[in-house]
């Protein structure tokens, strides 16, 4: 099997648009020129995991549902297992589902970003509910090795029903938690999930 090639963005391209660190709500300021650039490329994933000159573009989907009985928002969360995913995040809790855009996602007529996001979602979870998709921000966290080589595009899926199940051992203990339960688990969350929680569900 040939090595996966993933979509990457040169770090200096991002820097030419503006300073980016943490959660940035002005998605289009960064994402529109990035996706329109002729400097995007597909490179071997293993090499890119250790080369901060490039950022791997990652759709990161946060799924929420509001229980009509108590009016409380609940967020899908899971524990990262020991499968084929990012080993540096093993055993961390996460509220984001998604992954890399692969070179194969560019084979069809559709936008490779959209194709890749749908493929990753279909591989990782089954969603048996209608939902709305809102692109909420871009995220870059240089505070750790994983964050230094990834650029997240944060999507919020607002579901009509909490019908989501994990398709992979990598997504263990998948369930919906209230915001108070999620905040109690804050220290166990991976950094991206902490930043998303702070931005999407700020404490009142």
Main β-sheet description: 10 strands, mixed
Number of strands: 12
Instruction: Quote the average pLDDT.
Output: 92
Low-confidence stretches: 82-89
How much is the radius of gyration in Å? 16 Å
Tell me the helix content: 10-25%
Number of helices, counting only DSSP H or I runs of 4 residues or more: 6
Any idea what the shape is?
A: globular
Q: State the distance separating the first and last CA atoms.
A: 50 Å
Residue share in β-strands: 35-45%
Global structural class: alpha+beta
| Quaternary assembly | single chain
SSE arrangement, N to C: EHEHEHEEEEHEEEEEHH
Describe what this molecule looks like in 3D.
By secondary structure, the protein is α+β, with helices and mostly antiparallel strands. The protein has six helices and twelve strands. It has helices spanning 11-17, 27-36, 45-48, 112-124, 179-184, 191-200; strands at residues 5-10, 22-24, 41-44, 54-66, 73-80, 93-94, 97-98, 125-127, 131-140, 150-159, 164-166, 171-178. The strands form two sheets. Strands 1, 2, 3, 4, 5, 6, 7, 9, 10 and 12 form a ten-stranded mixed β-sheet that branches. It has a two-stranded antiparallel ribbon with strand order 8-11. A hairpin with a 6-residue loop joins strand 4 and strand 5. The protein is globular, with a radius of gyration of 16 Å. The chain starts with a strand and ends with a helix. Mean pLDDT is 92; it is low at 82-89.
């Amino acid at each position: 099997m040939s090595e996966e090639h993933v979509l990457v963005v040169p770090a200096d391209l991002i820097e030419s648009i503006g300073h980016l660190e943490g959660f940035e709500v002005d998605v289009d300021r960064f994402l529109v020129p990035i996706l329109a650039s002729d400097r995007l490329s597909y490179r071997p994933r293993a090499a890119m995991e250790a080369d901060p000159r490039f950022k791997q573009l990652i759709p990161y989907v946060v799924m929420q549902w509001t229980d009509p009985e108590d009016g409380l928002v609940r967020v899908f969360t899971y524990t990262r297992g020991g499968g084929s995913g990012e080993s540096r995040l093993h055993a961390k809790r996460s509220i984001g589902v998604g992954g890399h855009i692969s070179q194969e996602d560019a084979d069809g007529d559709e936008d490779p970003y959209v194709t890749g996001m749908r493929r990753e979602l279909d591989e990782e979870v089954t969603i048996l509910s209608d939902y709305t998709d809102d692109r909420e921000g871009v995220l870059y966290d240089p505070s750790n090795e994983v964050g230094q080589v990834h650029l997240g595009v944060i999507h919020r899926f607002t579901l009509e029903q909490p019908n989501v199940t994990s398709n992979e051992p990598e997504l263990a203990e998948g369930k919906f938690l209230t915001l108070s339960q999620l905040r109690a688990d804050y220290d166990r969350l991976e950094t991206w999930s902490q930043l998303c929680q702070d931005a999407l569900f700020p404490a009142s």
